[in-house]
Design goal:
heterodimer, A: 147 residues, alpha/beta, five-stranded mixed sheet, 6 helices, 5 strands, B: 508 residues, alpha+beta, Cytochrome-c3 Hydrogenase, chain B, three-stranded antiparallel sheet, 40% helix
Chain lengths: 147, 508
């Protein structure tokens, strides 16, 4: 199973990128073996959706990664390195990815984060959706071969 | 001669948008100010929206207690519609609500509170190394187990509510997802497994054995009775907390409030559930929601005279003027004019737990007692959940259709993980014309009121001896014992900001 997990808050524009891509992807019939999930603000609650997957793409609103691009591909390890040291009420994706090696029941899947930043143009939403599908449908998925 | 000194403590290490300022006098906190630093504004967001929109929007206030917000929103609309949901609907609502609590209690205790045991200020404690073995973030034996087990129990919410967090399956009149017998049996199985783990790992004994402890002497007997008790995480917590003096700090006002869990005649006939009340250390009083009021003398809102009941409440942000006096985006909720704390310890006192009443009467409130109450709250909730699951028959009576909700007022009061949560709503011409929310942390992290009386956390900090003001872990223990929750909702990852996610508003 491969999953696209869109995260964020649809009611706050600064955090709505993941939700917009979710709505965009929902309009299409996805290839077999790919599941689309709106992860909201679940944080650790998303663990279940990682543990039984072979490949996972998170789509989330980010900021500060690149001045030029609206859509960027980020390694899970880079997001994990941004985690706070311990769990808190605000723990989100960075904490989930950092703690994963210690708590994952089963093999850790290949994980990437498609980040959307700056203005949420229609083009950026489409690009993020396309990139996520591209990663999930190709044979290998090292970052360099994708980008 | 001692010298008073004002110290700003960056407690956003504890909770995102909470700032604490303390006045130190000779190594002792002589005064404290608790400030919520961001404006929430949900009350404004909801105005003009459809009558039912609170069921979808308010669970997004918090990613941890979204079920509690959904419960409060649904209860308020039940009242507007004049409907009592069928008993099985109330049971199902409570099962989900309590599931949220029994996972939150354990996550808080071992992923948020216990890691402070590893602070270097405790390095001379003989239990220090063992605390590291158990609670080191990401690696500690207990830390890892807690994440795994609490993940599993949340499946109960997913089975019934479709998802967690932010489910919206409760509606005025009941619930919209009717669980099958198979669903209910699956929930029983998940709960049974969680109970077995909780008894083995956390308590070191059965829930029934724990319930037989009636006073402080019984507790000591229990602790020394077997190595399972001594080495359980509860046993270790008690030993460590006493060794570093958590039972001597964090007293507070000694006044408490609880809303209890939603009930009905039918389900209360078969069992008792934690009830509402107001209490001091010595007395318990009948709860009356009309005695709730919010004051803004020290809050960044436009002034109004005295306190206002939430049905009359105003939320007009006003951050200019009276600089130096106003210091928080949180209002000051008061019950009958009193600052009151809420949370598991308050529930224990209001529901007259013999053990907690005995310790409270002897030693008063403390950070230790507050956190121990959270650790053992599942001993009360799990048996109730088991009973509900047995009683729920899955016969399809989970919903009574209301007439259109056009006009009216209602309130929904419930326990959230951190204590009392209330929603007050008024519907006019089918739209929300008024909405006020008072969260548990609004009670606990309240600023001063019109009389200048401190909020509960401020009061609990005052008088605390701090060994090293550069490392004021004593204050951290006290604040965490309230489990303040001031921020959720937005977690946009921001590069270059390694310790905290980007935030936009608080849940005061």
């Amino acid at each position: 199973m491969k999953r696209i997990i869109c995260i964020g808050n649809p009611y706050i524009i600064q955090d709505s990128g993941g939700s917009k891509v979710y709505e965009r992807l929902k309009q299409n019939i996805l290839p077999d073996g790919i599941e689309l999930i709106h992860g909201g603000l679940a944080g650790l609650g998303l663990l279940k959706f990682i543990e039984d997957a072979d490949r996972v793409i998170f789509i989330d609103q980010v900021c500060g990664f690149s001045d030029a691009k609206e859509v960027i591909l980020i390694n899970a390890s880079e997001i994990a390195s941004m985690s706070e040291d311990r769990y808190g009420h605000s723990s989100g994706l960075p904490y989930l990815l950092k703690t994963l090696p210690y708590i994952c029941e089963g093999k850790i899947p290949d994980i990437f984060v498609v980040g959307i930043q700056n203005a949420l143009s229609v083009q950026a939403i489409d690009e993020a959706a396309f990139l996520a599908l591209k990663i999930l449908t190709q044979e290998t998925c090292d970052k360099d071969s994708i980008v | 001669m001692s010298e008073k000194k004002l110290v700003n403590i960056p407690f956003n290490r504890v909770e995102g948008d909470l700032e604490i300022r303390v006045e130190m006098d000779g190594g002792v906190v002589s005064d404290a100010w608790c400030s919520g630093t961001m404006y929430r504004g949900f009350e404004k967001i909801l105005i003009g929206r459809g009558a039912l929109d609170g069921l979808v929007i308010t669970p997004r206030i918090c990613g941890i207690c979204s079920t509690a917000h959904l419960t409060a929103a649904a209860l308020a609309l039940d009242m507007v519609a004049g409907i009592n949901p069928p008993p099985d609907a109330t049971r199902i609502r409570n099962i989900v609500l309590m599931t949220e609590h029994i996972q939150s209690d354990i996550r808080h205790a071992f992923l948020m509170f216990a890691p402070d045991f590893l602070n270097t200020i405790h390095k001379d404690c003989v239990l220090y190394d063992e605390a590291g073995y158990r609670y080191e973030p990401f690696k500690g034996k207990t830390s890892v187990e807690v994440i795994k087990e609490t993940k599993n129990v949340l499946e109960i919410i997913a089975i019934i509510g479709g998802q967690w967090p932010h489910s919206s399956y409760m509606v005025p009149g009941g619930i919209v997802s009717v669980p099958s017998v198979s669903d209910l049996m699956q929930c029983q199985l998940i709960l049974r497994k969680y109970r077995q783990w909780y008894e083995r790992k956390i308590l070191g004994c059965t829930i029934e054995r724990w319930e037989s402890i009636k006073n402080a002497a019984d507790l000591q007997t229990w602790l020394e009775e077997s190595k399972e008790h001594w080495k359980s995480d509860l046993g270790f917590f008690i030993r460590f907390a006493r060794a570093v003096g958590l039972d001597k700090i964090g007293r507070g006002h000694g006044s408490f409030i609880a809303y209890g869990y939603p009930g009905s005649k039918e389900i209360e006939q078969s069992q008792s559930i934690p009830s509402a009340g107001f209490a001091t250390i010595k007395e318990k009083y009948i709860f009356d929601q009309s005695k709730i009021a919010e004051e803004v003398d020290y809050s960044w809102f436009q002034d109004y005279k005295d306190g206002k009941h939430p049905f009359e409440g105003e939320t007009h942000p006003y951050a200019s003027g009276k600089e130096g006096k106003k210091y928080s985006w949180g209002k000051a909720p008061r019950y009958d004019g009193f600052p009151v704390e809420t949370g598991p310890m308050a529930e224990m006192i209001i529901n007259q737990s013999p053990l907690f009443t005995d310790i409270m009467t002897r030693n008063g409130p403390s950070a230790f007692l507050r956190e121990m109450a959270r650790l053992v709250r599942p001993t009360i909730l799990i048996p109730i959940m088991e009973k509900y699951l047995e009683e729920t028959v899955g016969d399809g009576k989970f919903y009574i259709a209301p007439e259109s909700i056009i006009e009216g007022r209602g309130f929904g009061l419930t326990q959230a993980g951190r204590g009392c949560l209330g929603h007050w709503v008024e519907i006019t011409n089918g739209s929300i014309s008024h909405y006020q929310i008072i969260t548990p942390t609004a009670w606990n992290a309240s600023p001063r009121d019109s009389k200048g009386i401190r909020g509960p956390i401020e009061e609990a900090l005052t008088g605390t001896e701090v060994k090293d003001i550069e490392n004021p872990v004593e204050l951290g223990h006290i604040i965490r014992s309230f489990d303040p929750c001031l921020v959720c909702t937005v977690h946009a990852v921001k590069k270059g900001q390694t310790s905290e996610p980007f935030r936009w508003r608080l849940t005061l």
